[in-house]
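HUMAN: Spend a minute on the protein record below and explain its fold to me.
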Amino acid sequence: MIREYRTIQEIVSPLMMVKMVENVTYDELVEVELPNGDIRRGKVLEVNGDTAVVQLFESAAGINLAQSKVRFLGHPLQLGVSGDMLGRVFNGMGKPIDGGPEILAEEYRDINGLPMNPAARDYPDEFIQTGVSTIDGLNTLVRGQKLPIFSGSGLPHAQLAAQIARQARVLGDDAGNFAVVFAAIGITFEESEYFVQEFKRTGAIDRTVLFTNLANDPAVERISTPRMALTAAEYLAFEKGMHVLVILTDITNYAEALREVSAAKKEVPGRRGFPGYLYTDLATMYERAGRQLGKPGSVTMIPILTMPEDDKTHPIPDLTGYITEGQIILSRALYRQGINPPVDVLPSLSRLKDKGIGEGKTREDHANTMNQLFAAYSTGKDNKELMSILGEAALTPTDLLYAKFADEFERRYVNQGFETNRTIEETLDLGWELLSILPTAELKRIKQEYIDKYLPKKEG
C-alpha cells in the first residue's frame, strides 16, 4: 500500500526533505501532489533514519510545505520499452514529444540498468562503417566499443554526430538489423530541431530512437536522459537482437548537472568542483555498452563531449579517456582552415581498431595502409614545420613530397564534408591514391604484394 506524507520539512531546490517516513529506499520514485492537484516527480537521493532527501525532476515553485502530499511509489524511475520506439522522439524523461501516441510498453525497465558481468562479455571484433574516412580508415569503430569524440566549444560536433547517426551501418547479413539511439543532453531548442529535422530529411528517423533534453529543462532530468537512452538500447540489442549505436551529446552538460546536484547536497567537491564519484558515475553509463556471449545484438557507444577551454586534462575528458577505448579529437586549427569534419588524426586513437579490420571484415590491405598513412602524415607535418622555420630550400625533394602529401591528405582525406558518405572501399582506395604521391621506396609499412595489387600506376 502506498502511503501519503504531509511532512515536508524544507526545500532547497532541487532537493526536498521529508520527515517521519517508513520503508523508503534509495532511488525510489516520488510523486508530490500540490494543493491544486498538480503532480511533480522526483527520486530518493538519501535516507537517514526517518528522513528522506528527494531530488525533484521539476521546479519546486508552488510546493506548499504544509499542504502538499508526498507519495513514495516503491520502484525506481522506469522506461516503458517496445520495438515501437524506433522512429519516435522522446523528452529526457521518456515521454513522447513528437505528437504521436503513447508507447504500448512490452515491459518496464529500471533506467539504471545492471552492470554487465565481465565474464559474460564478448570481445568486440566486428566493423561498423560510419562513412567518415578519418574514423573508418584510421580509427575504426568496432561493434560493442566505446569511442568518445572530444570536441571544443564552437566546433561542429553536432554536425558530425548527425552525420554518423545518418550514415552508420553494419556490413553483411546484419545490415538491416541496425538502429541508432540518439540522446541530446542539455542542448538548445535550435539544436534539438536541427537533429529532428536532419533525421527526418534523410529518412534516418525510421531506425532511430531520439531523446532530447533541453538546456532549460531541470538539471535532474539531464542526469536521467542518457540512462533512458541506454535502457532503450539494451532492450533493442539484447531482447530484439539488433546492433545499436548509442550517440550521447553532450556529456559535459551531463557532468555539469551532476556537479550542480552535488553542490545542492553540500557534498565535499573533488577536482574542479566536480563530485569525487564522477569517475564511478561515468563508468556506470559507459560500461553498459558491449556485447554479451550467446546474444546476437550489440551496444556500441559514441559519447561526445566539449572540453572546457580545449583542455584534455579537464576531469570530464580525462576520466572518459580512462574508461573508454580511445578517442576521436576535433582540431580547432583544422576547423579554421575550413576542413570538415576537423578530425585531428594523430592524437586520435581507437584501441580496438586492429580487431575490426582486415580480410573478411574490411579489406586485406587495411592495417598496412592505415599504418603507412599515419606515418606519412606525421612526417609530412614535421617537414611542414621545418619548412616554416628553415625555408623550402632546406628540405630534400622527398621531404617536399611528404609536405605535399600532408596538405593533400588534409584537403582530400580528412575534408570530406558532412554530406559525403564513403564506403570503406572508397576510403581505402583514396588512401592508396594519396600514397602514390610518395616514392614507392618510402612505403615501408606495406607488404609488396599489396603495393603491386592496389597502388595506382603512375602515368608515363
Observations:
- The first helix runs from residue 133 to 138.
- Residues 387 and 394 are 7 Å apart (CA to CA).
